[in-house]
Design a protein that fits this description.
Layout: H1 2-42, H2 49-52, E1 56-66, H3 77-93, E2 100-106, H4 111-127, E3 135-141, E4 150-160, H5 185-194, H6 212-224
Parallel strand pairs: 2-3
Antiparallel strand pairs: 1-4, 2-4
Length: 240
Amino acid sequence: MKTILTQQVASRACVLATVAVLAAGLGGCDHLLPDRQEQLNAGQVVLTPQERHPIVVSQQQHKMQVRVARGAAGLVPAQRAAVIDFLSKYRAADAGNSKLIISVPSGSANEIAAMNAVADLRPILADQGFNESAVSIEPYHADGDPQPPVRIAYLRYAADGPTCGRWPSNVAETSRNLNYENFGCAQQKNLAAMVANPADLLGPRTMTPASADRRDITWGKYVKGEPSGTNRASDERATK
């Protein structure tokens, strides 16, 4: 009888020990699940084409030089045309992102002629829509140049697209269903080449000031208690 009881106790103890071991094993697996999930996710980071193939936007100097001979009274017609073309490109490409810098030689033999050229530039700038706050005129030393030029320059934004054509992996292997390395690169490169003003890639432009003329009229009618809408003629009819 004692032998049978001893066997039953031993059997129950074995079952309890087995259950405890299994519970510990399951608990250990449950503890490793988050780490295992992180390991799986670490190899499946999905990058957008903008992140994988970014467009680099930087400011680059764009300039032209106007050679003015000693004793010249100002700009010749060919120089005027070249300056107008340069200013037109500035207005189209820069959109007011930087000042127009005019550097005039100082202490050179053609200093007076250079000042005459700058005097001819002023009405050209006005005709092109430049105000005084957008233009800066500053002197510079000629450094031994017998005929130093008048330099006109501005900083413009330039967009450099990514380098495409990288195929480091087999695109036929799609078990992870992720984008391949070259995905979206051509689109980014074409966007960088076609954008009219690369500064737009950095953020939206500022709003222009609102017209105050109509606002004053509408506000005046509101203060007087008058209708602020547009008046209709007596014979005006709405049609469907």
